[in-house]
Amino acid sequence: EVQLVESGGGLVQAGGSLRLSCAASGFTFDDYAVGWFRQAPGKEREGVSCISYVDNSTYYGESVNGRFTISSDNAKNTVYLQMNSLKPEDTAVYYCAAKYITYYTGSYYFSKLPATMDYWGKGTLVTVSS
User: How far apart are CA 30 and CA 48, in angstroms?
Assistant: First the structure.
């Protein structure tokens, strides 16, 4: 059974940092792009970042580029999202997702085709206070 379990969310002041973790089980990262989406109340789901060893790519959404860093520990089947310089507008539920890579790059799937994700976690809430 495939599972993605997020952790690390919480309340932080603006300018602070958090590190999210996504522990995956039931598949390996070799054939997948794994990353993060977020959804704030009343807003559309947004691709935040992904990492793909299939095509050696990483992706960052425009709003987080330069502040967030994605990494992975393949031995632990875990993906991390280091979030620095957090802003109130980063407040959202953050979801881990995985996409089996076929035609497009991981970056393209996460930025343009969120509905095609194969697996989703249940999400972790990040709240940034001003």
Answer: 21
The single residue listed with the structure tokens 């109130």 is: 88
Report the alpha-carbon distance of residue 36 to residue 90 in Å, rounded: 13
Which runs of E-coded beta strand occur in 62-109?
Answer: 68-73, 78-83, 92-100
Q: Are the beta carbons of 20 and 35 closer than 8 angstroms?
A: no
Q: What is the pLDDT of residues 84-128, one digit of tens each?
A: 999 999 999 999 999 999 889 999 999 999 999 999 999 999 999
pLDDT of 78 higher than 90: yes
The token duo for 58 is: 């990483």
The CA-to-CA distance between both ends of the chain, in Å, stands at 40
Q: How far is CA 76 from CA 95, 104, 109, in A?
A: 19, 26, 24
Distance from C-alpha of 120 to C-alpha of 2, rounded to nearest angstrom: 9
Provide the β-strand partners of residue 124: 94
